[in-house]
Write a structure and sequence with these properties.
437 residues, elongated, two-stranded parallel ribbon, mainly alpha, Fumarase C, Chain A, domain 2, 6 strands, Ribonucleotide Reductase Protein R1, domain 1, 65% helix, two-stranded antiparallel sheet
Length: 437
């Protein structure tokens, strides 16, 4: 998935080279802690810190014989260190280095992910500011409802994004975990003090209680939060897809010079970015389900989760990062057709304001049931080219309840503009507060 929306650094973070780099970082940190505690000679740690390196090619050669990737890695590093290489991986089991290194990878990838989320927030904030008073038809069930503004519409998506960002950040923090408790998690080969020291070196926290692995509920939580973030992007993408339909045409995705929408129909400008994002969110939900399936392992551990995580974690991070950046580009280049929005509002024949007509009648003394029946009668009898405002004025039953000014006030949209402006102003403060937390 390499194009102008991709973030190369995210792919690099999930490369096999970076995985082994993080494993080496853990091994060196363990050797440092052990040397400080007198568990291994200090000169051995110095040699390990100075000489440790690995070759992916050599690791694969050893793994072809051992059929064990961690043993192959440790063997290759020990070859390069020399006689003090025997102290590498001292007192550790494979999951100690794998899970702790995995935490480091996740934290690095999480920082890139949160930067992409911040980019989309900025794009939405700019588009909201430009469209606070751009009136458009609000719709429920796909039908005209009441007026809103395009800025108000986007404000809801921004609020959701901030909530999802917070959830992802909290899930990342919950996975800032170091696990060095050894086989079946009993610390029989290594004292907890080593884990405590290494956690401090690496900016991690020691696992409360491990079996032989970091419990996978932590990992499932993160991928579920990423899936929620993807679902929020999908909700926005679907809204934009609906608004781009030919008969609506209220917004249009940016269309670059030389771009073509169809091999057969030259007129086409398709909502391709929104459609792609919709599809990607489906992948994220499937990855979240796979992470849930990884939680129950046999006894203290098995490796049924390993093959799954080698796919779902790199893919989840790369996919959501791609989707966030693609959505930011979409929002930045989105063309908002304010005139078409007003034209579409007119197509409602004034019915967008029916609730305010109802409230006016109730305020004038009619019961809600009677007022509702009158407004419904007029709305359902509107013919082609007729407008509710003039239908009211001509109606023998309820016209006397309205002055000319009453009708102008109701059907001008001024009340909606005023209240929307207040809501947006208030919500900006709330969202800024939430964003800073």
């Amino acid at each position: 998935m390499i194009d102008r929306y991709s973030r190369p650094e995210m792919s690099v973070l999930w490369s096999v080279e970076n995985k082994f780099s993080k494993m080496l970082q853990v091994e060196i940190a363990v050797a440092k802690a052990q040397s400080e505690l007198g568990i291994i000679p200090h000169k051995a740690y110095k040699a390990i810190a100075r000489k440790s390196k690995f070759s992916v090619k050599r690791i694969l050669e050893i793994e072809a014989v051992t059929k064990h990737d961690v043993i192959a890695f440790v063997s290759n590093v020990a070859e390069n260190v020399g006689k003090d290489g025997k102290y590498i991986h001292y007192g550790m089991t494979s999951s100690d280095v794998l899970d702790t290194a995995f935490s480091l990878q996740i934290q690095e990838a999480g920082a890139v992910l949160l930067a992409s989320t911040a980019r989309l927030k900025k794009s939405l904030q700019i588009k909201i500011a430009k469209n606070e008073e751009t009136l458009c038809a609000g719709r429920t069930h796909g039908m005209f409802a009441e007026p809103t503004s395009f800025g108000m519409k986007l404000m809801g998506f921004l609020a959701e994004l901030i909530r999802n960002e917070k959830r992802v950040a909290e899930a990342l923090e919950e996975l800032r975990i170091c696990k060095l408790s050894g086989a079946v998690g009993t610390y029989s080969s290594q004292e907890p003090i080593v884990e405590k020291k290494v956690s401090s070196y690496l900016g991690l926290k020691a696992e409360w209680v491990a079996t032989q692995v970091v419990p996978r509920d932590r990992h499932a939580n993160l991928l579920n939060q990423i899936a929620l973030l993807g679902a929020g992007l999908e909700r926005l993408a679907i809204e934009l897809r609906h608004l781009q339909r030919s008969e609506v045409s209220e917004v249009v995705e940016g269309f670059s010079k030389g771009q073509k929408g169809s091999s057969a129909m030259p007129h086409k400008k398709n909502p391709i970015s929104a459609e792609n994002i919709t599809g990607l969110s489906r992948l994220l939900r499937s990855y979240a389900l796979s992470a849930m399936e990884n939680i129950p392992l046999w006894h203290e551990r098995d490796i049924s989760h390993s093959s799954v995580e080698r796919v779902i974690f790199p893919d989840s991070f790369i996919v959501i990062d791609y989707a966030l950046n693609r959505m930011a580009v979409l929002i930045d280049g989105l063309e908002v057709n304010a005139k078409r929005m007003l034209d579409n509002m007119e197509q409602s024949q004034g019915q967008l304001y029916s609730s305010h007509v109802l409230l006016h009648l109730v305020k004038k003394g009619l019961s809600r049931e009677v007022a509702y029946a009158h407004v419904q009668r007029l709305c359902h009898s509107l013919g082609f080219g007729e407008h509710l405002k003039y239908k009211i004025n001509e109606d023998e039953v309820i016209s006397s309840y309205f002055t000319k000014k009453d009708l102008e006030d109701i059907f001008s949209g001024k009340k909606h503009r005023d209240t929307i402006s207040k809501v947006i102003k208030k919500q900006k403060k709330v969202l800024q507060h939430e964003d800073r937390k």
